[in-house]
């Protein structure tokens, strides 16, 4: 073997791309990367028919016709290029996964920004329509509050990675903001919220507000009009809070937390299917979980919060008595 050929083969052996050389429909050479991507043993395919190594008609056709293509093979996404006698392979599985993750993040961020922007537009429209006195001042205060929240989103995204923004606070602190923001939708739907959230948690208040807002928004969109309950409870492990509606009990919940998934009653409701996916992402940011469960007459979507250092354990027993 000549020195130049030895150097060339050494380069092929060390290449990050898969290299397969063929002649007269038979495999002449393939490097370790090509063998791994094709899922074959080099010794068993050398000198054998090309299709035995490729085991894919799209790749075989590419070898005959030339050109390049992206193809899914052996559970991986491969970019393949063929020139006379040579097939080059490049594993794009991780790159494809990164692109899909980036697209998902973009959709989630768009969904995340939509809420404060929608609220700000509603407040501006109300101000333009002409509010006076206390209502005018309250609308300005709310507009300032939503602007500040939008500013924090811009400066410190994503919400799931803000340990410095965590603090200990009472869940009841979020109630007025949620009620004011949802007031137009509640009135339109003929619904109201019954609150029982007397517990304290440690998390990012903006993240919890966003998660609860999404859960309440879902209950209003997909549940029947009427009473919606927001209930919290304490356990030795921490605190949970649930948004409960009186809709038809669902048979499946886990799928609804996947990006783009929508429920059986969503056909006539405008939405992106990202609300619950974002809720789960936010919950993971404070070390909690997001879940759904069927009730005897309705559905509950909830959040959990782990017990924080120094928290006093106060648990309510089935008779309603509390103990520390």
UniProtKB/TrEMBL annotation:
GO molecular function list: ATP binding; phosphorelay response regulator activity; phosphorelay sensor kinase activity; protein kinase activator activity
Chief place of localization: membrane
A single GO cellular-component term on record: membrane
Location of the Histidine kinase domain: 108-309
InterPro entries: BphY/WalK/GraS-like, HATPase_C_sf, HATPase_dom, His_kinase_dom, HisK_dim/P_dom, HisK_dim/P_sf, PAS, PAS-like_dom_sf
SUPFAM superfamilies: ATPase domain of HSP90 chaperone/DNA topoisomerase II/histidine kinase (SSF55874), Homodimeric domain of signal transducing histidine kinase (SSF47384), PYP-like sensor domain (PAS domain) (SSF55785)
SMART domains reported for this sequence: HATPase_c, HisKA
Catalytic activity entry: ATP + protein L-histidine = ADP + protein N-phospho-L-histidine
Enzyme class: transferase
EC number assigned by the record: 2.7.13.3
Topological category with respect to the lipid bilayer: Multi-pass membrane protein
Keywords from the named record: ATP-binding, Kinase, Membrane, Nucleotide-binding, Phosphoprotein, Transferase, Transmembrane, Transmembrane helix, Two-component regulatory system
Biological-process GO terms, alphabetical: osmosensory signaling via phosphorelay pathway
Domain spans labelled PAS: 26-54
Localization per record: Membrane
Protein's name in the database: histidine kinase
The organism of origin for this protein: Meiothermus granaticius NBRC 107808
Gene name for this UniProt entry: walK
């Amino acid at each position: 073997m000549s020195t130049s050929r030895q150097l060339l083969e050494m380069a092929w052996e060390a290449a990050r791309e898969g290299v397969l050389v063929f002649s007269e429909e038979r495999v002449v050479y393939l490097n370790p990367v090509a063998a791994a991507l094709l899922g074959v043993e080099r010794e068993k395919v050398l000198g054998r028919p090309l299709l035995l190594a490729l085991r894919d008609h799209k790749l075989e056709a590419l070898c005959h016709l030339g050109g390049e293509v992206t193809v899914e093979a052996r559970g991986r996404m491969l970019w393949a290029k063929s020139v006379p006698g040579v097939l080059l392979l490049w594993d794009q599985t991780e790159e494809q996964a990164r692109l899909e993750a980036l697209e998902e993040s973009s959709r989630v961020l768009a969904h995340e920004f939509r809420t404060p922007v929608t609220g700000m537009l509603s407040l501006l429209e109300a101000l333009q329509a002409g509010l006076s006195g206390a209502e005018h001042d309250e609308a300005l205060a709310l507009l300032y509050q939503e602007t500040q929240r939008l500013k924090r989103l811009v400066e410190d995204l994503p919400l799931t990675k803000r340990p410095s923004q965590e603090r200990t606070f009472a869940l009841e602190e979020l109630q007025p903001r949620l009620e004011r923001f949802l007031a137009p939708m509640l009135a339109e739907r003929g619904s109201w919220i019954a609150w029982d959230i007397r517990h304290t948690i440690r998390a990012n208040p903006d993240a919890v507000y966003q998660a609860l807002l999404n859960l309440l928004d879902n209950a209003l969109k997909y549940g029947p009009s009427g009473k919606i309950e927001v209930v919290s409870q304490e356990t030795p492990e921490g605190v949970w809070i649930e948004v409960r509606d009186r809709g038809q009990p669902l048979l499946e919940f886990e799928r609804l937390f996947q990006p783009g998934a929508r429920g059986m009653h969503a056909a006539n409701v405008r939405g992106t299917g990202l609300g619950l996916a974002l809720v789960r992402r936010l919950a993971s940011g404070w070390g909690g979980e997001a879940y759904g469960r069927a009730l005897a007459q309705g559905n509950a979507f909830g959040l959990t919060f782990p017990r924080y250092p120094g928290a006093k354990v106060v648990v309510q027993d089935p008779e309603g008595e509390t103990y520390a």
